[in-house]
Design brief:
The structure holds 2 protein chains of 2 kinds.
Chain A (H helix, E strand, L loop, with lengths): L10 E6 L7 H12 L3 E4 L6 H11 L3 E6 L4 H14 L7 E6 L3 H9 L4 E3 L5 H11 L4
Parallel strand pairs in A: 1-2, 1-3, 3-4, 4-5
Helix pairs in contact in A: 2-3
Chain B lengths: L3 H9 L3 H13 L4 H9 L6 E7 L5 H14 L4 E7 L8 E3 L14 E7 L6 H16 L3 E7 L2 H8 L4 E5 L5 H7 L9 E4 L7 H14 L15 H5 L21 E3 L8 H18 L1 H32 L2 H10 L5 H23 L1
Parallel strand pairs in B: 1-5, 1-6, 2-4, 2-5, 6-7, 7-8
Helix pairs in contact in B: 1-2, 2-5, 5-6
Classes of the chains: A alpha/beta, B alpha/beta.
Chain lengths: ~140, ~350
Protein backbone atom coordinates (compact mmCIF):
# COMPACT_ATOMS: atom_id res chain seq x y z
CA UNK A 1 0.00 0.00 0.00
CA UNK A 2 0.86 3.62 -0.13
CA UNK A 3 2.42 3.70 3.30
CA UNK A 4 5.63 2.49 1.72
CA UNK A 5 7.96 -0.36 2.43
CA UNK A 6 10.43 1.64 4.46
CA UNK A 7 8.99 0.18 7.63
CA UNK A 8 10.65 -3.15 6.95
CA UNK A 9 13.13 -3.99 9.59
CA UNK A 10 15.42 -6.97 9.79
CA UNK A 11 14.33 -9.16 12.68
CA UNK A 12 17.01 -11.27 14.32
CA UNK A 13 17.04 -13.69 17.14
CA UNK A 14 20.23 -14.15 19.10
CA UNK A 15 20.00 -17.52 20.79
CA UNK A 16 21.98 -19.29 23.46
CA UNK A 17 21.29 -22.97 23.43
CA UNK A 18 22.20 -25.78 25.79
CA UNK A 19 24.33 -25.84 28.91
CA UNK A 20 26.56 -22.96 28.01
CA UNK A 21 26.69 -19.95 30.27
CA UNK A 22 29.00 -17.79 28.20
CA UNK A 23 26.85 -15.01 26.88
CA UNK A 24 29.20 -12.06 26.58
CA UNK A 25 29.54 -12.67 22.86
CA UNK A 26 25.79 -12.97 22.43
CA UNK A 27 25.30 -9.68 24.27
CA UNK A 28 27.87 -7.92 22.13
CA UNK A 29 26.23 -9.20 18.97
CA UNK A 30 22.74 -8.30 20.19
CA UNK A 31 23.87 -4.78 20.95
CA UNK A 32 25.71 -4.43 17.65
CA UNK A 33 22.68 -5.66 15.71
CA UNK A 34 20.50 -3.18 17.54
CA UNK A 35 22.87 -0.35 16.68
CA UNK A 36 22.78 -1.51 13.07
CA UNK A 37 19.03 -0.87 13.14
CA UNK A 38 17.88 -4.47 13.46
CA UNK A 39 15.20 -5.68 15.80
CA UNK A 40 16.85 -8.16 18.09
CA UNK A 41 15.13 -10.78 20.19
CA UNK A 42 17.49 -12.26 22.75
CA UNK A 43 16.62 -15.72 23.95
CA UNK A 44 18.34 -15.70 27.32
CA UNK A 45 20.60 -18.45 28.58
CA UNK A 46 20.24 -22.23 28.72
CA UNK A 47 17.46 -22.65 26.20
CA UNK A 48 16.51 -25.97 24.73
CA UNK A 49 16.43 -26.37 20.94
CA UNK A 50 12.62 -26.60 20.95
CA UNK A 51 12.39 -23.30 22.84
CA UNK A 52 14.57 -21.62 20.26
CA UNK A 53 12.41 -23.03 17.47
CA UNK A 54 9.21 -21.89 19.17
CA UNK A 55 10.54 -18.38 19.61
CA UNK A 56 11.94 -18.17 16.08
CA UNK A 57 8.63 -19.29 14.56
CA UNK A 58 6.41 -17.06 16.69
CA UNK A 59 8.60 -14.03 16.24
CA UNK A 60 8.89 -14.74 12.50
CA UNK A 61 12.55 -13.77 12.49
CA UNK A 62 14.53 -13.28 9.31
CA UNK A 63 17.77 -14.25 10.96
CA UNK A 64 18.53 -16.77 13.69
CA UNK A 65 21.99 -16.43 15.20
CA UNK A 66 22.93 -19.33 17.45
CA UNK A 67 25.82 -18.84 19.84
CA UNK A 68 27.46 -22.02 21.04
CA UNK A 69 30.68 -22.30 22.96
CA UNK A 70 30.04 -25.61 24.66
CA UNK A 71 30.98 -27.94 21.83
CA UNK A 72 27.51 -29.41 21.59
CA UNK A 73 26.81 -27.75 18.24
CA UNK A 74 26.79 -31.07 16.39
CA UNK A 75 23.73 -32.26 18.31
CA UNK A 76 21.92 -29.01 19.14
CA UNK A 77 22.07 -27.26 15.79
CA UNK A 78 20.57 -30.16 13.82
CA UNK A 79 17.71 -30.31 16.34
CA UNK A 80 16.99 -26.64 15.75
CA UNK A 81 17.14 -27.09 11.98
CA UNK A 82 14.72 -30.02 12.13
CA UNK A 83 12.37 -28.01 14.32
CA UNK A 84 12.38 -25.10 11.90
CA UNK A 85 11.65 -27.47 9.05
CA UNK A 86 8.71 -28.91 10.96
CA UNK A 87 7.09 -25.47 11.01
CA UNK A 88 8.03 -24.70 7.42
CA UNK A 89 10.42 -22.02 8.58
CA UNK A 90 13.74 -23.52 7.54
CA UNK A 91 14.08 -22.31 4.00
CA UNK A 92 13.43 -18.63 4.63
CA UNK A 93 15.29 -18.19 7.88
CA UNK A 94 18.94 -17.25 7.65
CA UNK A 95 20.65 -19.38 10.27
CA UNK A 96 24.06 -18.34 11.55
CA UNK A 97 26.24 -20.08 14.07
CA UNK A 98 28.80 -18.25 16.18
CA UNK A 99 31.31 -19.69 18.58
CA UNK A 100 34.08 -22.21 18.70
CA UNK A 101 33.31 -24.66 15.93
CA UNK A 102 36.17 -26.93 14.80
CA UNK A 103 36.92 -26.92 11.09
CA UNK A 104 35.83 -30.54 10.57
CA UNK A 105 32.39 -29.85 12.08
CA UNK A 106 31.63 -26.93 9.82
CA UNK A 107 30.69 -28.71 6.60
CA UNK A 108 28.07 -30.93 8.26
CA UNK A 109 26.44 -27.84 9.78
CA UNK A 110 26.41 -26.14 6.39
CA UNK A 111 24.91 -29.24 4.84
CA UNK A 112 22.20 -29.01 7.44
CA UNK A 113 21.26 -25.53 6.25
CA UNK A 114 23.43 -23.21 8.32
CA UNK A 115 24.26 -20.24 6.10
CA UNK A 116 27.43 -19.12 7.79
CA UNK A 117 29.68 -19.90 10.72
CA UNK A 118 31.51 -17.13 12.51
CA UNK A 119 34.43 -18.21 14.64
CA UNK A 120 36.59 -16.26 17.06
CA UNK A 121 38.12 -13.16 15.52
CA UNK A 122 35.23 -12.38 13.21
CA UNK A 123 34.64 -8.65 13.10
CA UNK A 124 31.22 -7.37 14.01
CA UNK A 125 31.06 -5.35 10.80
CA UNK A 126 31.56 -8.53 8.81
CA UNK A 127 28.64 -10.22 10.57
CA UNK A 128 26.34 -7.23 10.12
CA UNK A 129 27.32 -6.94 6.47
CA UNK A 130 26.58 -10.62 5.95
CA UNK A 131 23.13 -10.26 7.54
CA UNK A 132 22.30 -7.19 5.46
CA UNK A 133 23.26 -8.94 2.24
CA UNK A 134 21.72 -12.29 2.97
CA UNK A 135 18.62 -11.63 5.05
CA UNK A 136 15.80 -13.32 3.16
CA UNK A 137 13.56 -11.19 0.98
CA UNK A 138 9.98 -11.85 1.91
CA UNK B 1 3.01 -19.47 1.73
CA UNK B 2 2.35 -17.41 -1.31
CA UNK B 3 -0.97 -15.64 -1.56
CA UNK B 4 -2.70 -13.74 1.18
CA UNK B 5 -5.77 -15.93 0.84
CA UNK B 6 -3.76 -19.03 1.59
CA UNK B 7 -2.15 -17.22 4.46
CA UNK B 8 -5.52 -16.29 5.92
CA UNK B 9 -6.78 -19.83 5.50
CA UNK B 10 -3.71 -21.21 7.23
CA UNK B 11 -4.14 -18.73 10.06
CA UNK B 12 -7.75 -19.70 10.56
CA UNK B 13 -6.70 -23.34 10.45
CA UNK B 14 -4.42 -22.68 13.38
CA UNK B 15 -0.98 -22.72 11.77
CA UNK B 16 1.44 -20.86 13.99
CA UNK B 17 3.70 -19.85 11.20
CA UNK B 18 0.80 -18.26 9.33
CA UNK B 19 -0.12 -16.18 12.38
CA UNK B 20 3.51 -15.15 12.77
CA UNK B 21 3.68 -14.15 9.11
CA UNK B 22 0.43 -12.19 9.23
CA UNK B 23 1.70 -10.19 12.19
CA UNK B 24 4.92 -9.49 10.27
CA UNK B 25 2.88 -8.20 7.36
CA UNK B 26 0.94 -5.98 9.72
CA UNK B 27 4.14 -4.66 11.29
CA UNK B 28 5.82 -4.11 7.96
CA UNK B 29 2.74 -2.56 6.37
CA UNK B 30 3.45 -4.99 3.56
CA UNK B 31 1.54 -4.67 0.32
CA UNK B 32 -1.92 -6.13 0.77
CA UNK B 33 -1.85 -6.13 4.57
CA UNK B 34 -4.95 -3.98 4.67
CA UNK B 35 -7.05 -6.40 2.69
CA UNK B 36 -5.77 -9.12 4.95
CA UNK B 37 -6.78 -7.26 8.10
CA UNK B 38 -10.18 -6.45 6.56
CA UNK B 39 -10.73 -10.15 6.01
CA UNK B 40 -9.59 -10.97 9.52
CA UNK B 41 -12.19 -8.69 11.09
CA UNK B 42 -14.96 -11.09 10.16
CA UNK B 43 -13.39 -13.77 12.34
CA UNK B 44 -12.77 -11.76 15.48
CA UNK B 45 -14.62 -11.02 18.69
CA UNK B 46 -13.89 -14.04 20.81
CA UNK B 47 -10.92 -12.90 22.84
CA UNK B 48 -10.57 -10.95 26.06
CA UNK B 49 -7.85 -8.35 25.67
CA UNK B 50 -5.84 -7.36 28.73
CA UNK B 51 -3.22 -4.63 28.87
CA UNK B 52 -0.37 -4.74 31.38
CA UNK B 53 1.69 -1.64 31.89
CA UNK B 54 4.06 -0.16 34.43
CA UNK B 55 7.53 1.27 34.80
CA UNK B 56 10.59 -0.70 33.66
CA UNK B 57 11.51 -3.33 36.24
CA UNK B 58 8.04 -3.41 37.78
CA UNK B 59 7.78 -7.08 36.91
CA UNK B 60 5.46 -6.95 33.91
CA UNK B 61 7.00 -9.77 31.92
CA UNK B 62 7.22 -12.06 34.92
CA UNK B 63 3.60 -11.37 35.77
CA UNK B 64 2.50 -11.92 32.18
CA UNK B 65 4.35 -15.21 32.23
CA UNK B 66 2.49 -16.34 35.34
CA UNK B 67 -0.84 -15.13 33.96
CA UNK B 68 -0.25 -17.10 30.79
CA UNK B 69 0.65 -20.17 32.81
CA UNK B 70 -2.50 -19.89 34.93
CA UNK B 71 -4.76 -19.37 31.94
CA UNK B 72 -3.19 -22.39 30.29
CA UNK B 73 -3.83 -24.47 33.41
CA UNK B 74 -7.47 -23.49 33.04
CA UNK B 75 -7.45 -24.72 29.48
CA UNK B 76 -7.45 -21.36 27.76
CA UNK B 77 -5.14 -20.36 24.94
CA UNK B 78 -3.07 -17.21 25.27
CA UNK B 79 -1.52 -14.67 22.97
CA UNK B 80 1.02 -12.18 24.26
CA UNK B 81 2.17 -9.02 22.50
CA UNK B 82 5.24 -7.62 24.23
CA UNK B 83 6.21 -4.14 23.21
CA UNK B 84 9.64 -2.67 23.77
CA UNK B 85 10.96 0.72 22.79
CA UNK B 86 13.17 1.11 19.75
CA UNK B 87 16.12 3.41 19.40
CA UNK B 88 15.10 6.79 18.04
CA UNK B 89 18.47 6.99 16.30
CA UNK B 90 18.98 3.70 14.53
CA UNK B 91 15.49 2.24 14.74
CA UNK B 92 17.06 -0.87 16.23
CA UNK B 93 15.70 -2.56 19.31
CA UNK B 94 16.47 -5.32 21.75
CA UNK B 95 13.26 -7.08 22.58
CA UNK B 96 13.93 -8.86 25.84
CA UNK B 97 10.57 -9.72 27.33
CA UNK B 98 10.66 -13.29 26.11
CA UNK B 99 13.47 -14.08 28.50
CA UNK B 100 11.14 -13.86 31.45
CA UNK B 101 8.44 -15.92 29.87
CA UNK B 102 9.82 -19.31 30.65
CA UNK B 103 6.91 -21.01 32.39
CA UNK B 104 5.07 -21.70 29.20
CA UNK B 105 8.01 -22.58 27.04
CA UNK B 106 7.41 -25.52 24.77
CA UNK B 107 3.69 -24.80 24.81
CA UNK B 108 2.76 -23.50 21.40
CA UNK B 109 -0.68 -22.52 22.69
CA UNK B 110 1.02 -19.53 24.25
CA UNK B 111 1.98 -17.34 21.34
CA UNK B 112 4.43 -14.63 22.34
CA UNK B 113 5.24 -11.90 19.90
CA UNK B 114 7.63 -9.03 20.48
CA UNK B 115 7.04 -5.73 18.72
CA UNK B 116 8.86 -2.43 18.68
CA UNK B 117 7.87 1.08 17.79
CA UNK B 118 9.90 1.42 14.60
CA UNK B 119 9.60 5.15 14.92
CA UNK B 120 6.16 5.32 13.36
CA UNK B 121 3.82 8.12 14.17
CA UNK B 122 0.97 6.62 16.11
CA UNK B 123 1.41 3.58 13.93
CA UNK B 124 2.24 1.17 16.69
CA UNK B 125 -1.14 1.39 18.35
CA UNK B 126 -2.73 0.57 14.99
CA UNK B 127 -0.29 -2.27 14.40
CA UNK B 128 -0.91 -3.57 17.91
CA UNK B 129 -4.67 -3.44 17.44
CA UNK B 130 -4.31 -5.31 14.14
CA UNK B 131 -2.01 -7.91 15.68
CA UNK B 132 -4.59 -8.41 18.43
CA UNK B 133 -7.20 -8.99 15.72
CA UNK B 134 -4.96 -11.58 14.08
CA UNK B 135 -4.50 -13.45 17.36
CA UNK B 136 -8.22 -13.19 18.03
CA UNK B 137 -9.07 -14.67 14.63
CA UNK B 138 -6.49 -17.37 15.23
CA UNK B 139 -8.64 -18.39 18.19
CA UNK B 140 -6.76 -17.16 21.24
CA UNK B 141 -9.02 -16.89 24.31
CA UNK B 142 -6.93 -14.33 26.17
CA UNK B 143 -4.65 -11.75 24.62
CA UNK B 144 -2.23 -9.84 26.82
CA UNK B 145 -0.54 -6.66 25.65
CA UNK B 146 2.53 -5.75 27.67
CA UNK B 147 4.13 -2.35 27.38
CA UNK B 148 6.11 0.20 29.32
CA UNK B 149 3.66 2.91 30.26
CA UNK B 150 5.78 5.85 29.29
CA UNK B 151 4.28 8.59 27.18
CA UNK B 152 1.13 9.05 25.21
CA UNK B 153 2.06 6.58 22.51
CA UNK B 154 2.30 3.76 25.00
CA UNK B 155 -0.95 4.76 26.61
CA UNK B 156 -2.65 4.61 23.23
CA UNK B 157 -1.31 1.12 22.79
CA UNK B 158 -2.51 -0.20 26.07
CA UNK B 159 -5.89 1.34 25.44
CA UNK B 160 -6.47 -1.18 22.70
CA UNK B 161 -7.12 -3.55 25.62
CA UNK B 162 -10.51 -4.01 27.30
CA UNK B 163 -9.00 -4.15 30.77
CA UNK B 164 -5.83 -2.35 31.78
CA UNK B 165 -3.71 -3.35 34.75
CA UNK B 166 -1.09 -0.88 35.97
CA UNK B 167 1.81 -2.28 37.97
CA UNK B 168 3.07 -0.13 40.79
CA UNK B 169 6.21 -1.33 42.52
CA UNK B 170 6.36 -0.92 46.30
CA UNK B 171 8.05 2.08 47.78
CA UNK B 172 7.32 4.26 44.82
CA UNK B 173 5.39 6.92 46.66
CA UNK B 174 7.05 9.67 44.76
CA UNK B 175 6.53 7.82 41.54
CA UNK B 176 2.83 7.69 42.22
CA UNK B 177 2.86 11.44 42.44
CA UNK B 178 4.63 11.85 39.17
CA UNK B 179 2.58 9.23 37.42
CA UNK B 180 -0.70 10.53 38.67
CA UNK B 181 -1.67 12.34 35.52
CA UNK B 182 -0.41 9.56 33.33
CA UNK B 183 -0.86 5.84 33.42
CA UNK B 184 -2.55 5.71 36.80
CA UNK B 185 -5.60 7.24 35.19
CA UNK B 186 -6.05 4.43 32.74
CA UNK B 187 -5.91 1.66 35.33
CA UNK B 188 -8.87 -0.67 35.66
CA UNK B 189 -6.90 -2.73 38.14
CA UNK B 190 -3.88 -1.74 40.21
CA UNK B 191 -1.27 -4.37 40.84
CA UNK B 192 1.24 -3.87 43.61
CA UNK B 193 3.78 -6.40 42.47
CA UNK B 194 6.73 -7.52 44.61
CA UNK B 195 4.32 -7.30 47.52
CA UNK B 196 6.76 -9.17 49.73
CA UNK B 197 9.06 -6.18 49.71
CA UNK B 198 9.13 -3.53 52.42
CA UNK B 199 6.96 -0.54 51.66
CA UNK B 200 4.27 -2.44 49.81
CA UNK B 201 1.67 -1.77 52.52
CA UNK B 202 2.34 1.89 52.21
CA UNK B 203 2.04 1.79 48.44
CA UNK B 204 -1.28 -0.02 48.71
CA UNK B 205 -2.46 2.59 51.21
CA UNK B 206 -1.42 5.46 48.97
CA UNK B 207 -3.19 3.97 46.02
CA UNK B 208 -6.29 3.42 48.09
CA UNK B 209 -6.28 7.02 49.28
CA UNK B 210 -5.96 8.15 45.74
CA UNK B 211 -8.86 6.01 44.57
CA UNK B 212 -11.07 7.22 47.41
CA UNK B 213 -10.36 10.82 46.60
CA UNK B 214 -11.40 10.12 43.05
CA UNK B 215 -8.12 11.73 42.28
CA UNK B 216 -7.03 9.50 39.55
CA UNK B 217 -9.62 10.28 36.93
CA UNK B 218 -13.17 9.63 35.90
CA UNK B 219 -13.21 5.88 35.94
CA UNK B 220 -12.19 5.59 39.54
CA UNK B 221 -14.83 7.63 41.27
CA UNK B 222 -18.16 6.20 42.24
CA UNK B 223 -19.18 3.76 44.86
CA UNK B 224 -17.54 0.66 46.01
CA UNK B 225 -18.35 -2.32 43.87
CA UNK B 226 -18.53 -5.80 45.25
CA UNK B 227 -15.54 -6.67 43.08
CA UNK B 228 -12.95 -5.12 45.27
CA UNK B 229 -14.39 -6.17 48.59
CA UNK B 230 -12.33 -9.30 48.91
CA UNK B 231 -9.20 -7.44 48.20
CA UNK B 232 -10.13 -4.70 50.58
CA UNK B 233 -11.12 -7.18 53.27
CA UNK B 234 -7.67 -8.57 53.10
CA UNK B 235 -6.38 -5.41 54.72
CA UNK B 236 -7.05 -4.90 58.37
CA UNK B 237 -6.42 -1.20 58.24
CA UNK B 238 -9.29 -0.66 55.88
CA UNK B 239 -12.08 1.56 57.10
CA UNK B 240 -15.21 0.02 55.72
CA UNK B 241 -17.53 2.91 56.50
CA UNK B 242 -16.41 5.00 53.60
CA UNK B 243 -17.41 2.29 51.19
CA UNK B 244 -21.02 2.40 52.32
CA UNK B 245 -21.54 6.03 51.51
CA UNK B 246 -22.30 5.50 47.88
CA UNK B 247 -23.84 2.49 46.25
CA UNK B 248 -23.63 3.57 42.65
CA UNK B 249 -22.74 1.09 40.00
CA UNK B 250 -19.42 2.53 38.85
CA UNK B 251 -16.23 0.54 38.69
CA UNK B 252 -13.90 1.04 41.61
CA UNK B 253 -10.36 0.23 40.72
CA UNK B 254 -9.30 -2.69 42.88
CA UNK B 255 -5.79 -3.13 44.21
CA UNK B 256 -4.28 -6.57 43.96
CA UNK B 257 -1.03 -7.53 45.64
CA UNK B 258 1.12 -10.03 43.80
CA UNK B 259 4.51 -11.64 44.01
CA UNK B 260 4.91 -12.56 40.38
CA UNK B 261 8.11 -14.52 40.84
CA UNK B 262 6.27 -16.94 43.14
CA UNK B 263 2.93 -16.76 41.39
CA UNK B 264 1.22 -15.30 44.47
CA UNK B 265 -1.90 -13.26 43.90
CA UNK B 266 -2.19 -14.27 40.26
CA UNK B 267 -5.52 -16.01 40.81
CA UNK B 268 -6.90 -12.90 42.53
CA UNK B 269 -5.74 -10.81 39.63
CA UNK B 270 -7.39 -13.09 37.13
CA UNK B 271 -10.70 -12.91 38.99
CA UNK B 272 -10.48 -9.11 39.02
CA UNK B 273 -9.97 -9.21 35.25
CA UNK B 274 -13.07 -11.37 34.97
CA UNK B 275 -15.02 -9.00 37.26
CA UNK B 276 -14.04 -6.05 35.16
CA UNK B 277 -15.05 -7.85 32.02
CA UNK B 278 -18.47 -8.59 33.52
CA UNK B 279 -18.80 -4.99 34.62
CA UNK B 280 -17.94 -3.69 31.15
CA UNK B 281 -20.51 -5.87 29.47
CA UNK B 282 -23.27 -5.35 32.04
CA UNK B 283 -22.87 -1.61 32.21
CA UNK B 284 -22.79 -1.19 28.46
CA UNK B 285 -19.41 0.48 28.77
CA UNK B 286 -17.84 -2.16 26.61
CA UNK B 287 -19.84 -1.15 23.56
CA UNK B 288 -18.84 2.44 24.10
CA UNK B 289 -15.21 1.49 24.58
CA UNK B 290 -15.13 -0.54 21.40
CA UNK B 291 -16.85 2.22 19.47
CA UNK B 292 -14.32 4.75 20.68
CA UNK B 293 -11.47 2.47 19.74
CA UNK B 294 -12.73 1.92 16.21
CA UNK B 295 -13.31 5.63 15.78
CA UNK B 296 -9.70 6.22 16.71
CA UNK B 297 -8.55 3.49 14.33
CA UNK B 298 -10.47 5.04 11.45
CA UNK B 299 -8.98 8.43 12.21
CA UNK B 300 -5.47 7.03 12.36
CA UNK B 301 -5.88 5.20 9.07
CA UNK B 302 -7.22 8.31 7.38
CA UNK B 303 -4.35 10.34 8.75
CA UNK B 304 -1.84 7.81 7.46
CA UNK B 305 -3.51 7.70 4.05
CA UNK B 306 -3.66 11.44 3.61
CA UNK B 307 -0.08 11.62 4.75
CA UNK B 308 0.92 9.05 2.14
CA UNK B 309 -0.96 10.92 -0.58
CA UNK B 310 0.86 14.09 0.33
CA UNK B 311 4.25 12.36 0.29
CA UNK B 312 3.93 12.22 -3.49
CA UNK B 313 3.00 15.87 -3.66
CA UNK B 314 5.99 16.67 -1.50
CA UNK B 315 8.27 14.80 -3.86
CA UNK B 316 6.86 16.75 -6.81
CA UNK B 317 7.62 19.99 -5.06
CA UNK B 318 11.25 19.06 -4.62
CA UNK B 319 11.10 17.07 -1.41
CA UNK B 320 10.75 18.06 2.18
CA UNK B 321 14.43 18.91 2.58
CA UNK B 322 14.33 21.62 -0.08
CA UNK B 323 11.13 23.04 1.34
CA UNK B 324 12.63 23.07 4.80
CA UNK B 325 15.69 24.82 3.44
CA UNK B 326 13.56 27.53 1.86
CA UNK B 327 11.96 28.12 5.25
CA UNK B 328 15.40 28.35 6.80
CA UNK B 329 16.38 30.91 4.16
CA UNK B 330 13.40 32.98 5.18
CA UNK B 331 11.72 32.64 1.78
CA UNK B 332 8.55 31.14 3.13
CA UNK B 333 7.12 29.47 6.24
CA UNK B 334 5.76 26.05 7.17
CA UNK B 335 2.14 27.23 7.26
CA UNK B 336 2.25 28.56 3.70
CA UNK B 337 3.86 25.38 2.44
CA UNK B 338 1.31 23.14 4.14
CA UNK B 339 -1.48 25.35 2.76
CA UNK B 340 -0.14 25.18 -0.79
CA UNK B 341 0.28 21.41 -0.61
CA UNK B 342 -3.24 20.96 0.64
CA UNK B 343 -4.93 23.36 -1.79
CA UNK B 344 -5.48 20.82 -4.59
CA UNK B 345 -6.88 18.31 -2.10
CA UNK B 346 -9.31 20.89 -0.80
CA UNK B 347 -10.26 21.84 -4.36
CA UNK B 348 -11.02 18.21 -5.13
CA UNK B 349 -13.19 17.87 -2.05
CA UNK B 350 -15.02 21.08 -2.88
CA UNK B 351 -15.73 19.80 -6.36
CA UNK B 352 -17.09 16.56 -4.95
CA UNK B 353 -19.42 18.51 -2.72
CA UNK B 354 -20.74 20.57 -5.63
CA UNK B 355 -21.35 17.43 -7.63
CA UNK B 356 -23.25 15.88 -4.77
CA UNK B 357 -25.38 18.99 -4.39
Amino acid sequence: MSAGSDQQSIRCMVAKVGLDGHDRGAHVIARAFRDAGFEVIYSGLHKGPEEIVQAAVQEDVDVLGISILSGAHDTLVPKIMDGLEEYGAKEDTLVLVGGVIPEEDRQPLRDDGVAAIFGPGTSIEETIEFVRENAPER
Amino acid sequence: MSSDEELLEALLAGEHRALARVISKIENRSPGYRDLVSEIYAHTGGADVIGITGSPGAGKSTLVDKLAETYRDRGETVGVIAIDPSSPFTGGAVLGDRIRMASTVGDMDVFVRSMSARGTLGGLSTATADAVKAMDAFGKDKIIIETVGAGQNEIDIVRTADTVAVLVPPGSGDDIQTLKAGILEIADVFVVNKADRPGSDRTVQELRDMIQLGDGGGGMSGGDGHHSQEVIDAHDDWDGEVADVEETAGWTTPIVETVATKGEGVDDLISEFANHRTYLVDSGEHAEQVRGRYAEEIRTLLREDVHALLEDRLAERGGIDDLAESVRQGETDPYSIAGELLDPVEDCLDELETEDA
